[in-house]
């Protein structure tokens, strides 16, 4: 695999753009490919079998575009599909997501950590294993957030309706004494400004996008696959209406960009 080949990233929708931004910031010489499976968002309510099928299809698509590494920029997809992808493509570096239980457990002062995530992530065996491994000395309070991903998909990051929805999710966590909140879905970093306005300044907000970018860097370096540039323009696809994704790109990616249709 050539070192100047692109990195392929996919998510159930546009949320993985938060991870893509971290990869771009850390590895500016890398070319990037991104697929939003917005035609099937959210994954959190889908069956593991369905998600594995989508992961396989999206990974195969990105590899056909020449990707040298794959990033599963979705907690729910990681739980359901990353092990299968590593078995199918043992020669390809595959990086997944996981809620930041370990750093949150280290950061909390009150001993109570809150988790905002999708239903699928919170019900998963992988999440239970993270708690068992890293949360012995803290109490973890979980909060599923139905409807929040859909608002972020629409680029609705700060309306009164989104604020009210988020307030309803956050209030029980604060009432339990949480001083650290894990953003357990890659969509959620986009509402950090809104979330910060709803919680005291002392509350720590933790996500894993930067840690994922560092893992990508480590794996590429280990395989002598780091690019020296120059990076090609990032390519984007969506399995929903491409114009819908194009409309939210300035808010989520920081600039306009063309989006191509992904069929199936």
CATH class of the largest domain: Alpha Beta
Detail the poorly predicted runs. none
Q: Largest sheet, if any? A: 6 strands, parallel
Question: What is the N-to-C order of secondary-structure elements (H for helix, E for strand)?
Answer: EHEHEHEHEHHEHHEHEHEHE
Helical content (DSSP H or I, runs of 4+)? 40-55%
Assigned CATH architecture of the largest domain: 3-Layer(aba) Sandwich
Judged by helices, strands and strand pairing, the structural class is alpha/beta
Short description:
With 264 residues, the protein is of the alpha/beta class. It contains 11 helices and 10 strands.
Description:
The chain has 264 residues and is α/β, with parallel strands linked by helices. The protein folds into 2 domains: 7-97 and 209-261, Rossmann fold, CATH 3.40.50; 101-206, Rossmann fold (3-Layer(aba) Sandwich), CATH 3.40.50.1860. Helix content is 44%, strand content 16%. It is built from 11 helices and 10 strands. The strands form 2 sheets. Strands 4-3-1-2-9-10 form a 6-stranded parallel beta sheet, with helices on both faces. α1 (17-26) packs across α10 and α2 packs across α3 (75-88). The longest helix has 17 residues, at 48-64. The chain is globular. The two termini are 27 Å apart. The mean pLDDT is 94.
């Amino acid at each position: 695999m050539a070192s100047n080949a692109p990195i392929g990233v996919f998510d159930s929708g546009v949320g993985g753009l938060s991870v893509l931004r971290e990869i771009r910031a850390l590895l500016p010489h890398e070319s990037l490919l991104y697929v939003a499976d917005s035609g099937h968002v959210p994954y959190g309510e889908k069956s593991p079998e369905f998600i594995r099928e989508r992961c396989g299809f999206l990974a195969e698509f990105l590899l056909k575009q020449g990707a040298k590494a794959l990033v599963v920029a979705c907690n729910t997809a990681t739980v359901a599909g990353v092990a299968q992808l590593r078995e199918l493509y043992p020669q390809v570096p595959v990086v997944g997501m996981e809620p930041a239980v370990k750093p949150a457990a280290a950061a909390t002062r009150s001993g109570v950590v809150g988790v905002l995530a999708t239903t699928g992530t919170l019900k998963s065996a992988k999440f239970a294993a993270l708690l068992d491994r890293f949360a012995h000395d803290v109490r973890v309070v979980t909060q599923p957030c139905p409807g929040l991903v859909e608002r972020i998909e629409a680029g609705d990051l700060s309306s009164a309706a989104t604020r009210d929805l988020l307030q309803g999710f956050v209030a029980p966590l604060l009432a339990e004494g949480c001083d650290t909140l894990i953003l357990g879905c890659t969509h959620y970093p986009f509402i950090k400004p809104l979330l910060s306005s709803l919680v005291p300044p002392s509350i720590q907000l933790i996500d894993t996008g930067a840690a994922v970018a560092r893992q990508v860097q480590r794996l590429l370096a280990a395989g002598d696959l780091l690019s020296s540039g120059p990076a090609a323009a990032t390519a984007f696809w969506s399995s929903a209406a491409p114009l819908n994704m194009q409309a939210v790109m300035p808010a989520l990616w920081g600039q306009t960009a063309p989006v191509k249709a992904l069929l199936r």
